[in-house]
Design brief:
The complex is a heterodimer of chains A (587) and B (172). With 587 residues, chain A is α/β, with parallel strands linked by helices. Chain A has 23 helices and 20 strands. In chain A, helix 16 crosses helix 22. The mean pLDDT of chain A is 96. With 172 residues, chain B is an alpha+beta fold. The chains are: A alpha/beta (587), B alpha+beta (172). At the A-B interface, strand 6 of A face helix 1 and helix 2 of B.
Chain lengths: 587, 172
């Protein structure tokens, strides 16, 4: 403890430094001026000035997901905080560790409808893992360290620390280090009980048609957990599928990988899930995008569910063996228990199972035909993957068809290279997320796979990209439609394309130039490869406007309310049975 | 695999030990409203001023699957120390307190006092034309008492909601 008097703002900076923070994403305003003043007078922490607070949270999410560290956001009171709400909700849904510092009006004005006052802790209570209103400067250092602890421990998530202006201006000599702070109540269980591990390996050993279904929990647990997952899958010789959030947890080009599962997942992954007899879910949450119709979801399997969040277990799907624990720790225990017992799977059954899977795989559900000069969006994304894969790019996306195609055609060999808004489905996520990724990995190739509609939702961040000369590549798959909306209107609403046309689009090449970036347009299949290479080789930021077929739909697709075996593989499947009333109300 | 549609709804009394910090009650109530769970009654007050513990007793209902969810969701709130399902973790004592105001004169007034005596309700305030009864007991007993007071000039009821504690020497 130091006897020197410091302001709350200085203590805040000190706490950030002690937490190993080297960058924060933010936007100044009246209530946070003392914090910005303290930032000005130091050099350890860089501030990245975004152009709207929503962009700051997504940038911090990109930073966090690509590094495994906590992303930090600093915004002002009132509108600063409310603009951050979407990003906070996004981080909560996708379990991303964020500490968001929000300014607040001075304590004596709280509740008086003061200028730029909002009830930030009230508004953000349901969209954060936890939040704090700091009322006394003496509590500030402890709360800061608690916030980081809560954000990154257990199931990670966003934490808001609301900072009244008088509190950050008040002086204190009281400081505590992170090591001195022990949270009173929050101690998530990370180690599973031994008897659960024993039960799990016994259950797996009896399997004839097993599958590993792994999600973002493995990635959140860290690269070691991903290695352990790969070891387990290899040791057992079983198929593995990943959720949208889990892509990269298991190597994408591994022969045991079945691709992503779910609504736009592969035929083989979904049918393997439907037909398996033992399902090993590690760090996934049986999201409705994954399960489809619940009463037809993998009806004949025994299910093991490993999750660090007990509330994820038996929420959507009842399981036979719940295991609460950290994915990495449980995987380690499972591997050890399997080896110690010298267990073996029934190799004959496994061979038959793989044979079945190979039959499904032979349907080649992601095939498409690129004919003529008009570029198919699948072709654009597949070429982007092929031409960049040797550079281990970091891929972010916006939300919609392009997101699903990116998930389908990119193969991620390692974790933390795929950043997408999975749970919340936030259009406008990708470009600011790419800024955060690029800041964390200055020399890496960072690509935001975007749609022409999504990209306009946070287009102002091009200014931020220009300011810091972040060499982000924005690859716009431009079909002039909100493609996924258009697709659902075609399939579910009689082709009445209500408000889904992207009218009055800007000239993206000129737009790039206006923001000091390079603009590239491509509308011919013949030129695609050369222009993608030009994009990669351009040192600074690039906006790539890739004009593609306008009416392409994203397949395979499990229509809403349908079961895994009711997948549509392509446009020729469309005439199948009409979507049920029940399915129509689902999103 | 159990199908939640076929499961019946049951009522549970859940005790939650929380840090007595600002917003903690809003967090618990927000969890119930945000996720569409039922609250039949909820009481909260500080029970350990030294350690700043508050105890929330919530009576809720749902299918067994929903009830498990409620407990898991409560348990993962950061300021929650412990969640205990008093309805299934062995026998528990449940009590509620009611203040019941009855206004009237003559025979009705005498009758209300007679019934209060049978129910062991105490008179905590009275005048020539009203009584306030204080009564403690199981919620069902309070319901019956209040019902009986209805024709006798029931004016106002204030109830605490259920508080509960497990039987035996073990603490929460």
């Amino acid at each position: 403890m130091s006897a020197e008097l410091k302001t709350g703002a200085q203590m805040l900076i000190r706490a950030l430094r002690d937490q190993g923070v080297d960058v924060i994403f933010g936007y100044p305003g009246g209530a946070v001026l003392p914090i910005y003043d303290a930032l000005f007078q130091q050099n350890d922490i860089q501030h990245i000035l975004v152009r709207q607070e929503g962009g700051a949270v997504h940038a911090a999410e990109g930073y966090a997901r690509s590094t495994g560290k906590v992303g930090v956001v600093l915004v002002t009171s009132g509108p600063g905080a409310t603009n951050a709400v979407t990003g906070l909700t996004d981080a909560l849904m996708d379990s991303i560790p964020i500490v968001c510092l929000t300014g607040q009006v001075p304590t004596h004005l709280i509740g008086n409808d003061a200028f730029q006052e909002a009830d930030t802790t009230g508004i953000t209570r349901p969209c954060t893992k936890h939040n704090y209103l700091v009322k006394d400067v003496a509590d500030l250092p402890r709360i800061m360290h608690e916030a980081f602890y809560v954000a990154r421990s257990g199931r990670p998530g966003p934490v808001v620390v609301d900072l009244p202006k008088d509190v950050v201006q008040a002086k204190t000599s009281h400081y505590v280090t992170p090591a001195e702070v022990k949270h009173r109540s929050y101690r998530p269980q990370t180690k599973a009980e031994d008897h659960k591990i024993a039960e799990a390996v016994e259950m797996i050993a009896k399997a004839k048609r097993p599958i590993v279904y792994a999600g973002g929990g493995v990635i959140n647990s860290g690269p070691k957990a991903c290695e352990l997952l790969t070891r387990l899958v290899h040791m057992l010789g079983v198929p593995c599928t990943n959720t949208l959030m889990g892509l990269g947890a298991f190597p994408g080009s591994d022969p045991q990988f079945l691709g992503m599962l779910g609504m736009h997942g592969t035929y083989e992954a979904n049918l393997a899930m439907y037909n398996c007899d033992v399902m090993i879910n590690i760090g996934a949450r049986f999201d409705d995008r994954v399960t489809g119709r619940l009463d037809e979801f993998s009806p004949r399997s025994k299910k093991i569910h490993v999750d660090i969040d007990a509330s994820s277990i038996n929420k959507n799907v009842m399981v036979d063996l719940p295991i609460v624990g950290d994915a990495g720790s449980v995987l380690e225990d499972l591997l050890a228990a399997w080896q110690a017992r010298k267990l073996q799977l029934d190799q004959k059954a496994l061979k038959d199972w793989w044979q079945k899977i190979e039959e499904w795989r032979a349907r080649d559900c992601l095939k498409f035909e690129q004919k003529g000069q008009v570029i198919k969006p699948q072709h654009a994304i597949k070429r982007l993957y092929e031409l960049t894969k040797d550079r281990s790019p970091f891929i972010t996306t916006e939300v919609g068809q392009h997101q699903m195609w990116a998930a389908q055609y990119f193969k991620f060999e390692q974790p933390n290279h795929w950043m997408t808004s999975g749970g919340l489905g936030t259009m406008g996520y990708g470009m600011p997320a790419a800024m955060g990724v690029q800041r964390a990995h200055p020399d890496a190739l960072v690509i935001d796979v975007a749609g022409e509609a999504s990209i306009l939702m946070n287009i102002q961040e091009l200014s931020c990209i220009a300011q810091y000369n972040l060499p982000v590549k924005v690859f716009i798959v431009n079909n002039q439609w909100m493609g996924m909306v258009r697709q659902w209107q075609e399939l579910l609403h009689g082709g009445r394309y209500s408000e889904s046309y992207s009218a009055a689009l800007p000239d993206f090449v000129k737009l790039a130039e206006a923001f000091h970036a390079v603009g590239i347009r491509c509308d011919k299949a013949d030129e695609l490869d050369d222009k993608i290479m030009e994009m990669i080789e351009t040192p600074g930021p690039v906006i790539f406007d890739c004009l593609v077929t306008k009416d392409e739909n994203c397949f395979p697709m499990i229509p809403s309310g349908a079961a895994h075996y009711e997948m549509l593989l392509g446009p020729e499947d469309k005439a199948g049975k009409p979507i049920s009333e029940e399915g129509m109300v689902l999103v | 695999m159990a199908n939640h549609k076929t499961q019946v709804t049951e009522s549970r009394t859940i005790a939650v030990l929380v840090d007595n910090e600002p917003g903690v009650l809003a967090r618990v109530i927000g969890l119930f409203s945000g996720r569409g769970y039922n609250i039949e009654s909820l009481t909260v007050t500080e029970v350990d001023p030294r350690q700043r513990f508050s105890r929330i007793t919530v009576v809720t209902s749902g299918t067994p699957q929903i009830l498990e969810q409620i407990k898991a969701q409560l348990d993962r709130l950061v300021p929650v120390h412990r969640v205990s399902d008093l309805s299934i973790e062995g026998p528990a004592v449940e009590r509620e307190l009611a203040l019941v105001k009855v206004a009237g004169t003559g025979e009705k007034r005498v009758e209300s006092l007679r019934i209060a005596d049978i129910f062991r309700a105490r008179v905590v305030d009275s005048s020539h034309d009203h009584f306030i009864f204080e009564m403690t007991g199981k919620s069902e007993k309070l319901d019956v008492f209040i019902d009986l007071m209805q024709p006798l000039g029931l004016v106002d009821v204030s109830r605490t909601g259920v508080v509960a504690i497990s039987r035996g020497p073990q603490g929460l």
